[in-house]
Amino acid sequence: AIDTETSGKDPRCATLFGISLSVKEEQAYFVPMVQTDLDGISTEEVRSRLNKVLSRNLKLVGHNLKYDFAVLQRNGFDPQVLYFDTMLASYDCFGDWEFWNLAAVAKKLLGVSVRRYRDIVGDGETFLDRPFKELVDHACSDADVALRLHGVLSRELRKRRIEQRFVDVTMQVERFLIDCERDGVCVDTRRMERVRDAAKIGVDALRASEFASAGVEFDIDSPK
After folding, report:
1. Which of 23, 28, 107, 133 is deepest in the core (most CB within 10 A)?
2. Sequence-distant (≥ 6) Cβ neighbours of residue 152 within 8 angstroms
3. DSSP secondary structure letters along the chain
4. Going residue by residue through the chain (224 aa), what tens digit of pLDDT does each one get?
């Protein structure tokens, strides 16, 4: 399981503070990505060594992995296998829940309380304003809980007989969206302009027809 700790919710501009990893339940590790948190090693060397791990054929698990992959790719990492998103799996299994954040899902399925970012970091603060141990504990907790949720949700998907649909549809769509966000989407602007102009002509013709039928011009967009 993998989780990124950053300065904000927008993966396009958030600063990466570190990466947490968990390969065994109730055990996780945190890798800092801020130079002041490192001792005797550079962030470039950390990135190089960690990238070798993430570039392997690892089945990566996490909660809202689209965010984590966007952050990782923007910071020079190349994770290969987006395997299982616990947020999407919980939605496929329990679509009528009100909240899908990690804390809410963990409480419902594991019966554990997870401290959310806003429970630790005050307004106008980031994790850099808090003791380093709080950052490490929070990051490791998130990775561990995601790994534990993977086991529970895998069984739930099989129980509901929707495991293959989750693999073939849900996860495929997430991979497609990640690629689009990374590579961008080709847009034919000239064609869009032609469609827009044609639509405007059609709308104007319809308006004129309605005004002629009514015998008077009026605000056709008014709900009245």
Report:
1. 28
2. 109, 110
3. -EEEEESSS-TTTPPEEEEEEEEETTEEEEEE-SGGG-SSS-HHHHHHHHHHHHTSS-EEEESSHHHHHHHHHHTT----EEEEEHHHHHHHH-TT-S--SHHHHHHHHT------HHHHSPTT--GGGS-HHHHHHHHHHHHHHHHHHHHHHHHHHHHTT-HHHIIIIIHHHHHHHHHHHHH-----HHHHHHHHHHHHHHHHHHHHHHHHHHTS---TT---
4. 999 999 888 998 899 999 999 999 999 999 999 988 888 899 999 999 998 888 778 899 999 999 999 999 999 998 888 999 999 999 999 999 999 999 999 999 999 998 888 788 878 888 888 889 999 999 999 999 999 999 999 999 999 999 999 999 999 999 999 999 888 899 999 999 999 999 999 999 999 999 999 999 999 888 87
Q: Say what the pTM is.
A: 0.80
Query: Nearest 5°: phi and psi at 204?
Result: -60, -40
Residues across the chain:
224
Identify the residue whose tokens are 């590579």: 183
Both structure tokens of 220: 């056709």
Edge-to-edge strands, sheet with 16-24: 2-6, 16-24, 27-32
| CA angle, 70 then 76 then 82, to 5° | 45
Q: For residue 148, count other CB atoms closer than 10 A to its CB.
A: 20
Cα separation, 160 vs 163, whole angstroms: 8
